Amino acid sequence: MQRKALEAVRTSASIEGTNARRVAAALAFGVATLIALGDVRAQNSDAEALFTDAEALEAAGKLPEACDAFEASNRIEPRAGTLIRLGQCRENQGRLVSAWSAYKDALTRVKDPAKRQLAEQRVASLSPRLSYLTVLVADESRVDGLMIKRNGKELDAALWNRAAPVDGGVYTITGHAPGHEEWSTTVEVAAESDKASIEVPRFKELRKLVETPPPPPGGGGGTGGGGEIDQPPTSMFTPRRKIALGLAGVGVLGLAGGLVFGTQAKGLENEAFDLCPDPGVPCADAPAAQQKIDDGHSKAVLANVAFGVAGAAAIGAAVLWFTGAPKAEPARVGVHPTVRPGYSGIDVLVRF
User: Fold this and answer.
1) Which end of the chain is more exposed for a tag (fewer CB within 10 A), N or C?
2) Parallel, antiparallel, or unpaired: how do β-strands 169-176 and 163-166 relate?
3) How far apart are the first and last CA of the chain?
4) Among candidates 128, 118, 59, which has minimal Cα distance to 96?
5) Rounded distance, CA 238 to CA 26, Å?
6) Cα separation of 93 and 263, whole Å?
């Protein structure tokens, strides 16, 4: 009996310990939940404060500030109600596309049927009143690295040649590409039911700047600030001498051709002699030997012509080279002002 009583006491203590642990775990979970809800309320309070400020600013007629406050509140805590109020504020501002976008964003979050109906009505009402701007970029204008910006923000290439809804106002369209001149223009879009377009031209290529070497320094000055006037040196390769070099090249080619043809003619003659060594004795290979002699004669004629061309070119090159010598350099003139007791003037020195 004592043993059973002891076991009963132990069982009761174990059950009480288990219940205590469960209670402690439940309390810990509750505390964590309260802390988390406290953070959420703190975060929502910031959005609520901005929302309240936006309503006050709107009531005071300060629409730009009110709309910015509604937008900031929605960034902290996106809500369908905030987006609808933002849409109404932008609509009162006359920014129909911004209002239309806010209403459409509200439809992705709204759960209240009344709010859904209001957002749908505003989207349907604003859609036919929107203005559009098209940036036209033809294929011939699409150079490598082309970037188009609208009011300073890059316009994705997927939006080129597409009518994009925009609020009314003045838009600056700019473009640039590596190695090309930058381009810019402006277009004004009406606030309602306007369809404007801008065509981007092909940008002009930038010309590469060619560095011009600095002019050679002038001659040294003489006493009293004078100096010599030097003419730049004259090149030895005058136009005639350049022609002479060309003729010399022709002469070299002619000489080489003559040597080749002469060698071939001599070889054919030797081959014919090998076939029929004795001209006075009948030879079975006489026709073949005669053919080689004829071919050798033709090669010899070509060799003579090539040697003649080489000789004529050599003579012409020599004549042009010597008659095309550059003229003597002009005299160098030195001008020196001179002042000494009993004399003042300018001395001119000419060197040949």
Assistant:
1) N
2) unpaired
3) 148
4) 128
5) 108
6) 101
- How big is the chain, counted in residues? 352
**Total Cβ atoms within 10 A of residue 110:** 21
Q: Which tokens sit at 199?
A: 């065509």
Q: Which fold has domain 2-128?
A: 1.25.40
Q: Residues 113-143: pLDDT tens digits?
A: 999 999 999 999 999 999 999 999 999 888 8
- At the top level of CATH, the class of 130-200 is mainly beta
Structure confidence by residue, pLDDT tens digits, 43-69: 578 999 999 999 999 999 999 999 999
pTM of model > 0.70: no
Q: Is 154 left (phi over 0), alpha (psi -120 to 50) or beta?
A: beta
**Rounded-to-integer distance, Cα 168 and Cα 190, Å:** 5
Phi, psi of 164 (to 5 degrees): -105, 130
Domain boundaries, the chain: 2-128, 130-200, 219-234+327-352, 239-323
Strand partners, 198: 135
Alpha helices in the chain (DSSP H): 2-59, 63-76, 80-93, 96-107, 113-126, 239-275, 286-323
Structure-block tokens of residue 15: 């059950």
d(CA 42, CA 20): 33
* Single-letter amino acid, residue 51: F
Separation of alpha carbons 166 and 169, rounded Å: 9
